[in-house]
Amino acid sequence: MTQPIRRERARLPAAERRRQIIDVTTRLIAERGFWGLSMQDVADGCGLTVPGLLHHVGSKDGLLLAVLEHRDAEDLRSLNEAVGDTESPREICAALVRRNSWQPEIVRLFAVLEAESLTPDHPAHDYFAARQQNTIDGLSRLLKGRTPDPDGLAVKIAALMDGLQVHWLRNPAEIDLVTQWMAAADFIFRDVDPPSGG
Amino acid sequence: MTQPIRRERARLPAAERRRQIIDVTTRLIAERGFWGLSMQDVADGCGLTVPGLLHHVGSKDGLLLAVLEHRDAEDLRSLNEAVGDTESPREICAALVRRNSWQPEIVRLFAVLEAESLTPDHPAHDYFAARQQNTIDGLSRLLKGRTPDPDGLAVKIAALMDGLQVHWLRNPAEIDLVTQWMAAADFIFRDVDPPSGG
DNA sequence: GTTAATACCTAGTAGGTACTCAGTAGTGCT
DNA sequence: AGCACTACTGAGTACCTACTAGGTATTAAC
């Protein structure tokens, strides 16, 4: 009886557990949104109890924050890596779309949260407002000098990308996101001067 | 103490109450999504109890269905009225956008539900899949003969419209949806032949 | 081997969830 | 005035919600 009990639940180092929690939460929010997310479901998905989960993230809002911060870091890293030193907005958008086409769950997470967080009392409201502004500012900066209305075009590019992604998510089997975007890009970048480098 | 209690709550005819329920629900779903919607909140918003509410809609799913059916009927009526006998896709899109610019709550309702319902077990999943298909088929039919790839263009138009609307919803004070769309339309309809009538 | 840190647990709180049942009170018809 | 209809209520069911307090068991450091 002094045998160590065979536990189903492993005790993990904090970083590892945190990573697992973020993965599970990402999937669940993509399915149900933040309002539809329950701590119990996340805990179950990680094989621990709710207080065990709360030990790592503090609260439900803290959990959401953790997910978003993780994604930000991850996306930034990956985009820098994929893009190299290009400054062609078209190339950068293409890289973004290519990456997204391999992670529909993440894209869905953002689609759902983006819509949910339109209302000001959503815990991710400020985050998404800032994110949208950043995206457009960044795009606009890259377009400056290559088109008469960089801001206006930046908004259209972002809108078209988001819209196409939702369309793709509804029917990922029949629609290929990258192909769709290539066609759309021919269209929307038509009047943009190519980068000076060639 | 045997005095009849002064009631705050009026007894309404079914149609009228139903209409009120739909209005309140529309607002609440736009704010919290369907997963975040509670029957209690809807009942409170209508000044009745939860069982009183359930008397009219049967269940929470029934409530959602009622809202969507009402919107379908309403949108169809209004669009036919606004468009008259035009068959210009550009005119029809403009009419749609003009209408939407006056009902941000409704647009938000659809934005949130559209994203939420991407997952197959959402009660509105089928509804939105069909809706998207209808939109694109309708647009594509209008574009046929006026552009080389009607289906592809229809998808882009729908995507751009949806994306711009979300962008607008995030900042309705600073952005004017109609202006934004006009600029986008100049762009996206550039290669579309004008209707044969002129 | 002892100590300190910590990953995680059990038990409990206070309240919210959709929904049912059986009855009441207001309304229209005759 | 009486009757049928129905909009609506109060009470209750079975369960889920985020979160806390306080403790245990595992690991790492020395």
Verbal overview:
- Chains A, B: Keywords: DNA-binding, Transcription, Transcription regulation.
- Chains A, B: Residues 38-57 bind DNA.
- Chains A, B: This is HTH tetR-type domain-containing protein.
- Two copies of one chain form a homodimer.
- The first copy, chain A, has 198 residues and is mainly alpha-helical.
- Chain A has two domains: 8-73, Homeodomain-like (Arc Repressor Mutant, subunit A, Orthogonal Bundle); 85-198, no CATH class.
- Chain A is built from nine helices and no strands.
- Mean pLDDT of chain A is 91; it is low at 1-8.
- Chains A and B meet through helix 1, helix 6, helix 7, helix 8 and helix 9 of A and helix 1, helix 6, helix 7, helix 8 and helix 9 of B.
- The structure holds a DNA duplex (30 and 30 nucleotides).
Secondary structure elements and their pairing?
Two copies of one chain form a homodimer.
Chain A: H1 14-32, H2 39-46, H3 50-57, H4 60-83, H5 89-100, H6 104-116, H7 125-143, H8 150-170, H9 177-188
Helix pairs in contact in A: 1-2, 1-4, 1-6, 2-3, 4-5, 5-9, 6-8, 7-8, 8-9
The first copy, chain A, binds a DNA duplex (30 and 30 nucleotides) through helix 3.
- The ordered H/E elements of chain A are HHHHHHHHH
Q: Percent of residues of chain A in beta strands? A: under 5%
What is the assembly state of the chains in this entry?
A: homodimer
Question: Could you report the average pLDDT of chain A, rounded to the nearest whole number?
Answer: 91
Structural class of chain A: mainly alpha
Could you name the ranges of chain A where pLDDT drops below 50 across 5 or more consecutive residues? 1-8
Query: In angstroms, what is the radius of gyration of chain A?
Result: 20 Å
Largest sheet of chain A: none
Helix content of chain A: 55-70%
